[in-house]
Amino acid sequence: MAININQEAREFHLTNGKISYIFRVMEKSGQLEHLYYGKGVNHRKSFKHLIEREARPASTNMLEGDYTSSLEHIKQEYPSYGTTDYRYPAHKIIGQHGSHVTNFQYESYHITKGKPALENLPATYTEQEEEAETLEVVLFDKILQCRLILSYSIYTNRSVITRNARFVNLGNETCFLDSAMSTNIDLPDDQFEMVHLNGAWARETHLQAQSLFKGVQSISSSRGASSHIHNPFLALKRKQTTESSGEVFGFSLVYSGNFVGQIEVDTFGVTRVMMGINPFQFKWKLAPGESFQTPECVMVYSDKGLNGMSNTYHALYRERLVRGRWRDKDRPVLINNWEATYFDFDEEKVLAIANTAKELGMELCVLDDGWFGERHDDTSSLGDWFENKQKLPDGIDGLARKIDRLGVKFGLWFEPEMVSKGTKLFSEHPEWVLSTPGRRASHGRNQYVLDFSRPEVVDYIYKLMDSVLEKATISYIKWDMNRYITEAYSSDLEADRQGEVMHRYILGVYQLYERLIHKYPDILFESCAGGGARFDPGMLYYAPQAWTSDNTDAVERLKIQYGASLVYPLSAMGSHVSAIPNHQVGRTTPLHTRVNTAYFGTFGYELDITNLTAAEKEEVKEQVRFFKEKRSLIRTGRFYRLLSPFDGNETAWMVVSNDQSEAIVGYYKVLAKPNDKFNRIKLQGLDPDKRYLINNNPVDHFGDELMNIGILLKRNETGYPQDFNSEVFVLKEV
């Protein structure tokens, strides 16, 4: 693996044998030209033969007398607008005279082993220098006296390149950054489908694919969080690409705030992909000596289909984005009281749930919303993080001790970014609420958003949370965020810095996380934002798992978890078995199907287990035992999608151990079919020459048979076929 530099031709070739990324410095303009990104190619002395130049009619050209210098027809690394390129730019800077024209020219480069951290931002990392190399290309605008550093990291053994950009004002005049993308790449053709994840509350991460068309197509958020609506991920796949074969380019932004992922197909079929902070309502004041760092974009190339792309993302995010003591540990089987009690609980009820959890083999009891202030519904008390002694006479620390004595760990819910009216915090510091002077303040879920762009607000909330955590034995925190940002105005910032509020807000959230995980490294954090409104790589840097969706219905979760798996590992997906009829859609599904869906995630329960029958308790004991036995495989194995819930009535997926000695297959059939035909599932990822037993059946099967012929599914057995049925197959090498 190497970053190859042709200093004479000023060409850069990043390659590890799996992938190649090639660009150069244009001789006359000093700007960067993109040449190739894709499957690895052999290095050669020069790639000048890849340059595309031709005089085109009606072109405008940068250089006098040079009729092939139109940037409109040149693929670029980090383009600007206003000097012959009419496509959307990767950056926009307003100088002292109001001009937005820039001219960043090549100055130097620097190569380092490993991967430098980003200041105050989450990012993937290395533990050994040999895992990656990083190229920094330095460009300079002489008029603005502004430096631009483009950073490229390539991993040694992964089909991954990460990119980010940093702007530094070296001049004596203030300028304003109106747009700053993390990555831009101009691909040579438009024969792709755009794959992305969209949705809404309770139906997050639904997979959508559409053919590219001439013009602009995009995903974005302007809500203050990455959002339920669009996940900060998109992929370009060839039209013939499947889950198991074909070419895919993935783009995933390690960021939790407003973002945009945009594709622009020009009239000549060039596909420009860019991703970064949403420029809408963004303006960053860059005073003399100040700098701005963009988030990281993780680019993955696969020639082995969507599953190949996903496996690369899963391993990278599980091993080199998630941090801390829980990164490589199996997660505890938990019971959360939310759907069991909502706000209607006391210490006696919580202890009854914890006692039953111990009896059933569960390891963690989580107390959700309602333990603080006068919180009996969702209209009050956020910000007053003081125990309600009527519900909990011995406080959180007393309850935690009692649960800990049972041999069960204790977890607690917080929503630290919000405040309710009528609280001590709201009355003492109304200026700490994001709101526009003289305008009505909107509310969501009867709550308001604290101004986390202010360091004193972050510090205040840290001290409140610390006062609870310091005196109680707490093993897990569920960090919620139940509304988007409106009236994004900070009373602490000058008028010309109000465009910084959204970004400064999420930096404040990151800072609070960082302080808490530094002081309490043993606590397992789970992020949540009304379910999946902030289910993104940025959060995984601080919280190794996320509540995937507030929708716990097993049938709906098939789509939600299937879509999320395009980017996120199973170890990141909070998945619970809940009560029936389901509290979100009213559907009644069998317990075994609810469990078979929840197995493929972090796994837990969210129902009143004290009301289970004796038979149901025995069934749950066996489910918990099974998951404990298989959770290491589920957490670390390679995940393959087999049948899509977006394509039909059936869903199937599987996890294969890294040594291919064991696998677990989940199969789900939503609606029953009378007198159905025989069906098979073709598996993936097995060793073709190994022999496997299925559910300890005495007949063994070669891996190639299971992948090319498949597992024969049962037809309807005696009695009527049932809706919402499922089965789990366990494969073990003979």
Strand segment count: 39
Mean pLDDT: 97
Using only C-alpha atoms, the radius of gyration works out to 27 Å
Class based on secondary structure composition and strand pairing: alpha+beta
Shape call:
globular
Question: Mind explaining what this structure looks like?
Answer:
The chain is an alpha+beta fold and 734 residues long. It is built from 12 helices and 39 strands. The strands form 7 sheets. Strands 6, 7, 8, 9, 11, 12, 14, 15, 19 and 20 form a 10-stranded antiparallel β-sheet that branches. Strands 29-28-27-26-23-22-21-31-30 form a 9-stranded parallel β-sheet. A hairpin with a 5-residue loop joins strand 36 (691-694) and strand 37 (700-702). Helix 9 runs parallel beside helix 10. The chain is globular, with a radius of gyration of 27 Å. It starts with a strand and ends with a strand. The model has no long low-confidence stretch (mean pLDDT 97). Residues 650-731 form the Glycosyl hydrolase family 36 C-terminal domain. Keywords: Glycosidase, Hydrolase. Pfam families: Glyco_hydro_36C, Glyco_hydro_36N, Melibiase.
Short description:
It is built from 12 helices and 39 strands. It is of the alpha+beta class. Strands 6, 7, 8, 9, 11, 12, 14, 15, 19 and 20 form a 10-stranded antiparallel beta sheet that branches.
